[in-house]
């Protein structure tokens, strides 16, 4: 009888048409070996404090991956660069030995967007999160959607859970795939371009 009750309870959300978006965020299982990703910010200019804050925000939110500065640019798993264009990032998840890049573009700053929010959002792409411009300010991956008045620079619980899931198998979870670059043109629709 108990098995039948459990089975029916498991089917109720499916029968009601519940979607993954309606399910509350749950923490991904902690991996036995935390994946450490190193980054280089030597080419990031005025973005240095925002990058430090971004790493702190992600490290405080997730369990299965840890971001830390690399000992050298050549040894970094991903790099931050200051540019004159729009922000863009390699879409991950990036694993050790990966070659990701985050371009922190001045045009977003010119439009009034918060540096720490932009850096944390772009780092979210490195960690494997796509854009969700329809989301609220509380979602870091909503990016420019809520407008420049949104200065939240912390990922929410759902985003943190997805990143933990991306790294739940440790470094053995790395899957080779074609890398894409997400270009966050913050006054229009994002462009997706293949990375070479």
UniProtKB/TrEMBL annotation:
Domain of life (superkingdom): Bacteria
InterPro entries cross-referenced by the UniProt entry: MetalloPept_cat_dom_sf, Peptidase_M7
Catalysed conversion reaction: Hydrolyzes proteins with a preference for Tyr or Phe in the P1' position. Has no action on amino-acid p-nitroanilides
Keyword Nucleotidyltransferase among record annotations: no
Record keywords, A-Z: Disulfide bond, Hydrolase, Metal-binding, Metalloprotease, Protease, Secreted, Signal, Zinc
Coiled coil (UniProt feature): none
KW Coiled coil (keyword) present: no
Cofactor(s) of this protein: Zn(2+)
Signal peptide feature range: 1-20
SUPFAM superfamilies hit by this protein: Metalloproteases ('zincins'), catalytic domain
Subcellular location: Secreted
GO MF annotations, alphabetized: metallopeptidase activity
E.C. number(s) listed in UniProt: 3.4.24.77
Family per record: Belongs to the peptidase M7 family.
Protein name, entry field: Extracellular small neutral protease
């Amino acid at each position: 009888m108990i098995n039948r009750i459990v089975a029916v309870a498991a089917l109720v959300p499916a029968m009601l048409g519940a979607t993954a978006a309606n399910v509350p965020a749950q923490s991904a299982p902690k991996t036995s070996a935390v994946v450490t990703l190193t980054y280089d910010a030597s080419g990031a200019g005025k973005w240095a404090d925002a990058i430090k804050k971004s790493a702190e925000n992600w490290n405080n939110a997730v369990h299965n991956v840890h971001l830390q500065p690399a000992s050298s640019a050549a040894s970094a798993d991903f790099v931050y660069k200051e540019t004159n264009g729009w922000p863009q990032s390699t879409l991950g998840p990036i694993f050790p030995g990966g070659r990701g890049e985050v371009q922190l573009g001045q045009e977003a700053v010119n439009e009034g967007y918060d540096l720490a929010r932009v850096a944390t959002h772009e780092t979210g792409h490195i960690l494997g999160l796509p854009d969700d411009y329809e989301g609220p300010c509380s979602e870091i991956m909503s990016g420019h959607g809520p407008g420049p008045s949104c200065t939240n620079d912390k990922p929410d619980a759902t985003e943190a859970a997805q990143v933990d899931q991306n790294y739940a198998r440790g470094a053995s979870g790395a899957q080779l795939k074609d890398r894409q670059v997400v270009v966050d043109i913050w006054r229009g629709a994002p462009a997706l371009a293949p990375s070479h």
